[in-house]
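Hey team,

Filing this mostly as a record. A colleague (T.K.) asked me to run one chain through the structure pipeline before their review meeting, and I want the input and output archived in the tracker in case anyone asks later how it was produced. No errors, nothing strange. Just documentation.

Input sequence:
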Amino acid sequence: MSVGWLVTGAGGMLGRDVLARLAAEERVATGLDRRCLDITDRTAVRAALREHRPAVVVNCAAWTAVDEAERHEAEAARVNADGPRHLAEACAAYGAALLQVSTDYVFAGDASTPYAEDAAPAPRGAYGRTKLAGELAVRAALPDAGFVIRTAWLYGAGGGNFARTMISLEAAGRTPDVVDDQRGQPTWAADVADRLVRLGDAAVAGAAPAGIYHATSAGETTWCGFAREIFRLLGADPERVRPITSAAFPRPAPRPAYSVLGHEGWRAARGVAIRPWREALAAAFPALLRAEGRDPAPAPAATGRRGS
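Output structure:
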């Protein structure tokens, strides 16, 4: 049976939110998790496109274990590079547009102003290298129908993430130590899902040029600033979150010190960038609380200020 949309990686947080957004609009869509479709299997990918004949494919499947990618780069590349290549080639064969979800890790993270869509990538770790390879494969195979959507610092109700961890730690009475020298844009997965659907519609209508788009919330903060805003919305003392440096929390994979992305690309697609991160977090909070088994309560009003 022909469908309008095909979502890979449908069992993950973003994939679930994309399917929920499509369902809310009563779209015809199929979601395939990794049990149903292994995107590293070229033959299986071709068969899925041949069976479903979607107009738009949204690839949310990815190896996202950043530290594990340092130890298993070849395995990560099969998912993050080979998988998108197989999807792009199948989309080219069957006339579908492909929305490839990517990451801020394709950049070095040493900038001081937001990275534009056309800024030169310079990944410092295996995860970023494999995701960049996926971007390049999609754009090479689908120059007129390949869309790369970079996002960062995702959180949501449909999976484990930083926001839910902080809610859990606050409930346990913890005073967490959180990195305060990495800057980025906390981004609600539901907001990204909305932009993916809007971009897919524009792609089918010929109203959006193929290329790179950045889907992150407006504004910026640090991980510590993000955590303190979560505590504030919980009615807890934000000062319980203690700032630390990245050096105090070493990890196998290098983390970008600056992950702020610019959003000029949406103008070409006649779209708008995502709302400020504090506004989005306040909107997301009831769903986050329910996911943690807590009753949502009216949250304090989100402030309009920028920064930490």
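Quick notes for T.K.: The CA atoms of residues 98 and 146 lie 5 Å apart. The first strand starts at residue 5 and ends at 8.
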